[in-house]
Amino acid sequence: MSRVTKGKQGELKAREYLLSLGHTILFQNYRKRLGEIDIISIENDTLHCSEVKTWNEAFGFFPVQSLHATKRARMRKVYFYLLQEIPAFYHLTPSFNLIHITEKKEVRFYSSIF
């Protein structure tokens, strides 16, 4: 299976998971010049900006490590672009999340990790 196919399947699994938690999906693969947020959803008064990683931990690398300072900064910048485009979101509390899809198709949700 190609890396792109695996990533798309992981994003679909993450989307289904968020929907099961009561989220409303607003955007998927929200792209701006500086970066991308995989899934943007809303739940209660929280705007969730989620990075999805489909990763096999057997390789000794854990997805939380992939959210290095540069990636976090890019996600924040894309979030601020979103607020400029849709000012109605200003009142929502932001939550930057990681959704890890394991090799066994399990979902691990890390909420508000930065």
Description:
The protein is of the alpha+beta class. The chain has one domain (3-110): Trna Endonuclease, Chain: A, domain 1 (3-Layer(aba) Sandwich). It contains 2 helices and 5 strands, in the order αβββαββ. The protein has helices at 3-20, 69-85, and strands at 24-32, 35-43, 46-54, 93-101, 107-110. A hairpin with a 5-residue loop joins strand 4 and strand 5. It is globular and about 40 Å long.
Rg, rounded, reads: 14 Å
Total helical segments: 2
Which second-level CATH architecture applies? 3-Layer(aba) Sandwich
Question: What do the pLDDT scores average to?
Answer: 92
Might you state the CATH topology name? Trna Endonuclease, Chain: A, domain 1
According to DSSP, the number of beta strands is 5
Tell me roughly what share of residues is in helical segments. Answer: 25-40%
Question: What fraction strand?
Answer: 35-45%
Shape: globular
What is the string of helix and strand elements? HEEEHEE
Q: Report strand order across the widest sheet.
A: 1-2-3-4-5
Q: What's the CATH class label?
A: Alpha Beta
Main sheet record: 5 strands, mixed
**How many domain regions?**
1
Low-confidence stretches: none
Structural class estimated from helices and strands:
alpha+beta
Quaternary class: single chain
C-alpha end-to-end distance: 32 Å
List keywords for this structure.
5 strands; alpha+beta; Trna Endonuclease, Chain: A, domain 1; single chain; 114 residues
Condensed summary:
With 114 residues, this protein is of the alpha+beta class. It is 31% helix and 35% strand. It is globular.
